[in-house]
Specification:
Elements (H helix, E strand, L loop, with lengths): L8 H6 L15 H5 L5 E5 L5 H9 L4 E6 L2 H10 L8 E5 L5 H4 L6 E5 L17 H8 L6 E7 L2 H13 L3 E6 L15 H8 L5 E7 L2
Parallel strand pairs: 1-2, 1-4, 2-3, 4-5
Antiparallel strand pairs: 5-7, 6-7
Bound molecules: S-adenosylmethionine.
The site of S-adenosylmethionine has 21 residues, from strand 2 and helix 8.
């Protein structure tokens, strides 16, 4: 997907106090960054940040980290955070490929929200639910593993259910239409989700767990 480039995005993002500019420095030390031992939840590909910011507002006893590759995408999140006080939120501008440089066994939940589906076979390894990513997640999960995934893309959803189950995850909740499920699922919308919801498109959802 092509994203609009914003002038000086790098400077805007790196000067935001919520942004951790050298995340590798804090590997195994995120509890010191947050100043507490609360669970840490990580969103990969947070885009413009609506989801992670609202999660941080709604759940102050959980620490949240939003990671995003493109600084221009992050600018909106940075603007939304002006005059906010969210000590339980940090942002990282980096490639999800590098998460092992940033985290030890510190993460309790990973959110994969409207991740790029990479439909071509040649790009399969870029999918956030490819086995290589699942193996990386193993190395940053603190103990029990939890991946919450939302997508509008049926093919990517089917693929993810397959890789997750092959990797011994079990499914706590699955929905083929998150917003119209007969058993409502607590949910905070992402920027992309809001758009798809307004268009009436179904959102696929899975809450996958692996408990030792
Ligand atoms: C379709 S958007 C979804 C954004 C947001 N999660 C939402 O639901 O509104 C996918 C996001 O993932 C980001 N992304 C793609 N590949 C990435 C990578 N390897 N590491 C970090 N972010 C990535 C993109 O830049 C984009 O912002």
């Amino acid at each position: 997907m092509e994203y609009i480039k914003i002038k000086d995005a790098g400077k805007i993002v790196s000067s935001c106090p919520y942004v951790v500019n050298n995340p590798a420095k804090y590997k195994n030390k995120w509890k010191d960054v947050f100043g507490n031992n609360n669970p840490i939840h990580l969103e990969l590909g947070m885009g413009r940040g609506d989801f992670i910011i609202n999660m941080a507002k709604q759940y102050p006893k959980i620490n949240f980290i939003g990671l995003e590759l493109y600084d221009s995408q992050m600018v909106m999140a940075v603007e939304r955070l002006v005059n906010q006080h969210l000590p339980n939120l940090k942002l990282i501008n980096a490639d999800a490929m590098n998460i092992l440089d940033f985290f030890g066994k510190e993460i309790s939940t990973i959110y994969l929200t409207f991740s790029e589906p990479w439909p071509k076979k040649i790009d399969e390894k870029k999918r956030f639910t490819h086995i290589n990513y699942l193996k990386m997640y193993d190395r940053i999960f603190k103990k029990d593993k939890r991946i919450v995934l939302k997508t509008d893309n049926k093919g990517f959803f089917a693929y993810s259910l397959e890789t997750l189950s092959q990797y011994w995850y079990s499914f706590e909740r699955v929905s083929l239409d998150l917003h119209h499920d007969e058993n409502p699922i607590p949910n905070i919308m992402t920027d992309f989700e809001r758009q798809y919801y307004e268009e009436g498109r179904p959102i696929y959802y899975v809450d996958a767990r692996f408990n030792d």
